[in-house]
From TrEMBL:
Name of the protein described by the UniProt record: Signal recognition particle receptor subunit beta
Pfam families: SRPRB (PF09439)
Family membership noted in the UniProt record: Belongs to the small GTPase superfamily. Arf family. Belongs to the SRP receptor beta subunit family.
Topology relative to the membrane: Single-pass membrane protein
Single Gene Ontology BP annotation: Golgi to plasma membrane protein transport
GO cellular component: a single term: endoplasmic reticulum membrane
Length: 266
């Protein structure tokens, strides 16, 4: 009983003290000129709103890198090389996206200091490309893999696929960087990245002209490419486009690893 009485006394004292603080606070407020008071309240409300909006719209930095390209270009082998340093005995055909979140194989020794990469290998078959739309909105970067050995017969198809990526709304609005990765460059008869770059620019130049002539209702792309009256160049794209070389079979993937780390920060 004695403890209960002491608690009631303490509560009553606290109540009296709070009433005194409230009274002093009201006296202080009444002493402030109305304009200063309104300004102070306005600043407080604006600051609170700004903090809430910043927290609401602040987007978490993505760690997703999307591997895309035609079937047979070597995307899946590159996926395995980046993940565990293995080529899986050569040709690998994937009909479903390969996904994994890991520290790149070459960085395993310092994995505690690095941010894991979420790597997605999207099948290149034309009937399965729609799956790419599931991953592009969350991508920090896109690696478009090109078969440098068998490039010319597939140049048109590869350029059309790349055109669709470069005019995709997510890629354009978020300025998602794209790396054109010329794979299989360990072979003597493989084309150079400079040659592949020039040929794809020429094909995309033809594509943008032919597609712009189609009725707007028939165009599925969200944006157009290039500058009217000028030959197309990748430098004209809304986002950064770079070209590099690799060899999935021999494990020469340093340039793609560099691209990944430039866009998935430590």
């Amino acid at each position: 009983m004695e403890g209960t009485e002491q608690w009631k006394v303490q509560v009553e004292q606290l109540k009296v003290q709070m009433e005194q603080w409230l009274e002093r606070g009201l006296e202080f407020v009444h002493q402030i000129p109305p304009i200063q008071l309104y300004v102070g309240v306005g600043v407080l409300l604006f600051t609170t709103l700004l903090l809430l909006l910043t927290r609401l719209f602040k987007r978490r930095k993505s760690n997703t890198i999307v591997l895309s390209g035609l079937s047979g270009s070597g995307k899946t082998i590159l996926f395995y090389q980046l993940r565990d340093g293995s080529s899986h005995q050569g040709t690998v055909t994937s009909m479903e996206p390969n996904e994994g979140t890991f520290v790149l194989h070459s960085e395993i020794a310092k994995k505690d200091k690095l941010k894991p990469v979420h790597l997605v290998d999207v099948p290149g078959h034309s009937r399965l490309r729609a799956k790419l739309d599931d991953f592009l909105p969350q991508a920090a970067g896109v690696v478009f893999v090109v078969d440098a050995l068998d490039f010319l017969p597939n140049c048109r198809a590869a350029s059309e696929y790349l055109y669709d990526i470069l005019t995709n709304a997510s890629v354009v609005k978020k300025k998602i960087p794209v790396l054109i990765l010329c794979n299989k460059t360990d072979k003597v008869t493989a084309h150079t990245k400079e040659f592949i770059n020039r040929q794809m620019e020429k094909e995309i130049d033809k594509l943008r002209v032919s597609r712009s002539a189609i009725s707007t209702a028939d165009i599925s792309n969200d944006f157009t490419l290039g500058i009217p009256g000028k030959a197309f160049s990748f430098t004209q794209c809304y986002n950064k486009v770079a070209v590099a070389e690799a060899s999935g079979l021999t494990g020469e993937v340093s340039e793609v690893e560099q691209f990944i780390r430039e866009n998935v920060k430590f």
